[in-house]
Amino acid sequence: MRYQTLAAIPLLLISCGSASEPSSQPIHFETQTQVARATSGLNAAAMARTVSSAAELNRLRSLIVLRNGEVLAEHRFNGGPALDRPVNIKSASKSVLSAMVGLAIARDVLEGVDQPVLSVLRADAPAAPHPRLERLTVGHLLSMQAGLERTSGANYGRWVSSPNWVRFALSRPFVDEPGGDMLYSTGSSHLLSAMLTRASGRSTHALAQEWLSGPLGIAIPQWPRDGQGIYFGGNDMLMSPRAMAAFGELYRQGGVVDGTRIGPEEWIEQSWTPRAVSPWSGEGYGYGWFVGEAGGHAVRFAWGYGGQMIYVVPDLGLTIVMTSDPGGTRDGGHIDALHALVSGGIVPAAVAGA
C-alpha cells in the first residue's frame, strides 16, 4: 500500500460547501489562537446558550456533541427524525467514500493514491484518451484536483441525466492539469466509487457494509445508483445522526474504536492534510475533508448540502454532528449559523469545561 505524503499548504479561512458544489459566499471561522487549560465535559451555561441558539434555526434537525467518546448532548429540532433514523447526508458522503478508499488501499484492493484512474476504468475512457487523462490518479480525484471540467454546478443536471455517469465524467475536457487548482466535482467522487466496484468485484455498498457498517455497529442502507449499478460516489448516502457520530469518532481516535483498529491512522492524517484551496472562499481541502479553525482550534469537517455536518476538533476531543433539512434552497446564512454554533458555542463550552 502507498500513501502520498505532502507538506501542508498555507491554510486560509474556511467556509462550507454543498452536496454538489461549494457555496460562493465565504463563511469564516474565528482565528484567534487560544491556549486552553485541560478540561473535561462541557460548561453547562455555555451549552445551554448554544442549544437555545440552535433551536432558533428553523432548518436544523439534530445536534449531537461527544467529548472524548462520551455523548454529552443529543437534541432534535423542528420535528426532525429520530437520531437513529438514516437521513440523506448529501456531500458528507465524500468523507465516507474517502475512508473507504483508504481502507481499500490498506487491503490492496487499490494500489495507492498514485494509482492511475485508467488502470481500472480504461474501458470507460474515450478511445484516444488525452495524455492528461493517462496521468489522472486516485489522489487527484480525492482532493478535487482532477483538472477535468466539473460535473457539479451548471453541469450537474446534464451529468446525472447521461446514460453512463462514469463515461461522461471521463470524457469531460481538461480545463487544468491534474494536481492543479481545486475543481469541486461530484463526478470525481463517483469515479472513485466505480474504481472500488471494478477493482473489488463488489458493490460500494457491500464494501461499506463490511468495512464500516459492521465494525462500527451502524446502519448504512442502500443509496442511489447510476444506470450501470455503481452506487453514487460522493452524494446521497444514508446515515443516521448517531451513525455519523460513530464515523466521526473513528477519525477522532485515529482509526481505532474500542481498542480495535479499523482504519489506518496514516490515512486519516493524509485526509486531513490540505492539498487544495477553494476558489470561492479560500478554504482548505484534503482527501474528502475540509480543514480549518474554530475558535482558535483546528477543526476538520465533512460537509453536505444544506447543513449535514460532521465536525472533529481533535485537541478538545470533540465530535459534533448536525443535520438539517436537505431540501431547502442554498442558504449561506444557515451554514454560517452552524459554524457559529461550533466556534462561538461548543468550542468555548469545551474550553471552559464542566
Secondary-structure arrangement, i.e. CATH architecture:
3-Layer(aba) Sandwich
Q: Looking at this structure, what is the CATH superfamily?
A: DD-peptidase/beta-lactamase superfamily
Spatial gap, N to C terminus: 43 Å
Sheet-strand content, in percent, reads 5-15%
Radius of gyration: 19 Å
Total of DSSP H or I helical runs spanning 4+ residues: 12
Helix % is 25-40%
Q: Could you say how many structural domains there are in total?
A: 1
Q: Compute the number of strand runs.
A: 12
Largest sheet, order of strands side by side? Answer: 2-1-12-11-10-9-8-7
The secondary-structure element order is HEEEHHHHHHHHEHEEHEEEEEEH
Assembly type of the chains comes to single chain
Structural class call reads alpha+beta
According to CATH, the fold-level topology is Beta-lactamase
Shape: globular
CATH class: Alpha Beta
The main β sheet shows up as: 8 strands, antiparallel
Low-confidence spans: pLDDT under 50, at least 5 residues?
1-35
Mean pLDDT: 90
